Amino acid sequence: MGDFSISGGNYGPINTGSGSQDNRGMTIGSAESADALVRLERLLDEHAPRLEEGDEARDDLADVREQAGKDKPDKRRLTDTLKRLSERVAAVGALATAVKEVADKLGVHLP
Asked: Quick one: average pLDDT of 71-78?
């Protein structure tokens, strides 16, 4: 049989096989996640008037900040809020990209 190789941008162990589990921590308090949140907030301030639900998007961002600041954030709530926020800002490409960046920094997968 030939050689088999797995590579990519993931870091840490790669689990395979029946019954394997993958447990990853969230990097909530990192400087990178804080910077991404600040960038998103600035973009939201700039583009909120163009959004149908600009005020609601601001409320979602406040909830994301609150969860990100907790010692033990509610990952499900964080995921749901980021998903909803991404839907609210989808009309503005820069905002959609910024929400995705925040989600990535917080360890949340968005579709």
From this structure: 94
